[in-house]
Fold this sequence. Notes:
alpha/beta; Purple Acid Phosphatase, chain A, domain 2; 6-stranded mixed beta sheet; 17% strand
Amino acid sequence: xxxxxxxxxxxxxxxxxxxxxxxxxxxxxxxxxxxxxxxxxxxxxxxxxxxxxxxxxxxxxxxxxxxxxxxxxxxxxxxxxxxxxxxxxxxxxxxxxxxxxxxxxxxxxxxxxxxxxxxxxxxxxxxxxxxxxxxxxxxxxxxxxxxxxxxxxxxxxxxxxxxxxxxxxxxxxxxxxxxxxxxxxxxxxxxxxxxxxxxxxxxxxxxxxxxxxxxxxxxxxxxxxxxxxxxxxxxxxxxxxxxxxxxxxxxxxxxxxxxxxxxxxxxxxxxxxxxxxxxxxxxxxxxxxxxxxxxxxxxxxxxxxxxxxxxx
Length: 312
């Protein structure tokens, strides 16, 4: 059985059985089962009921506001979980009407807000493509938008194979992170996918624990690489899975992050009900941002570089 941790981020609307059957059997779970799990004994749900702090607001850029940035300066934006179709019929509005034509909405905001000198962080769940040969159209659609892009693998990026093959598909100004770091302008970015982590209410199974420990190692590797590029200056970390829950309690991931000069941590993965239990705000000097696209209203979040910011 798939652990409840892995299904707790399910959207509030269940996808159709036909939609789910388009995935390999080993990756599926019944929509009814996944939603039932979330609504009963999920640790996300339990934490949501026991909220112990005031939720901090996510900073986003409002495309209706004039930019105060000087011409040619670099800003950093983030938006994850684009869930593009991957050369197949994967309409995201099965998860709710707010997902209808979601990439068109993202693209409109993106073009209003982001210039060619800016950086956009895309922390995983880029496409539903299953094979590397199916990802081309989705990558081209993203690369056609302004700005430099940094991609990170998510748990649904089944197409993401050997990192050399992934990077070979990318055009100029696009980068793929995997246990390493990249420097653009004065900013250094690093990261890893992450994984579910054990909680007092739900320990990990043997296989999940192996992946979890491996991702902890990869996070440290990427931060070590970032330190070499930054000379010890604060860096920005990308993860797909959330590194902590909304109560702010330490995890193995945050313990590692706390050892390094980190100024921003961006992550996605959470949708629907899961958005309510995300940690958003400052923690031990680092600002944590949930940037799954529906959590942002399908509008890229400005992380660094703009004085014109608003909150949700």
